[in-house]
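Predict structure. Chain length: 190.
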Amino acid sequence: MTTQPAPLPPDRAASGAAKLVVPCVIGGIVALTLGIYGRLHHPTGFAVNIAGFSSPGSVKSWLATAATTFAVVQVGSALVMYGKVPRVTAPSWIGGLHRWSGRIAFLLAVPVAVHCLYALGFQHYSTRVLIHSLLGCAFFGAFTVKMLILPKRGLPGWLVPTLGALVFTALIGVWFTSAFWFFSTFGIKR
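Prediction complete.
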């Protein structure tokens, strides 16, 4: 006769589900709020240009490229931290590199999002622009979920890397539908 494990008490089972549900709901609210604001806000067409750049589109594209570069550093450092790079022992500083590359990537992405939302709004006049708008909202929603889940204990080990991959994938999609498109259309210039 095999014995079945005792079921979790209702309060523990509920708190385990809340560890995932609450951050996911908040992330969904962030993504929806950005999308709704971007759609309802009348685009101003006005964006702050940084000296030395030829246009606000150029500024946005270079900031997005820098954010994506730091996100690639973050993925690389995560692979080292999780032991996924053969014959590489994680140095003691890899955790700091991972955290700071993520922080810098996020800080570089914020002015890009502000420019998109304030100057352009949530647009859908072409497939590329619609996908860009959706991915931009999804990026900030997924980022919110990841940040809210990070301090939680007792979650499956695959969850944080999966969320990190989701955030990274959304950012790469945002970059391809904006900065890559901009550089391939107008050329690489400051």
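Summary: The CA atoms of residues 81 and 95 lie 7 Å apart.
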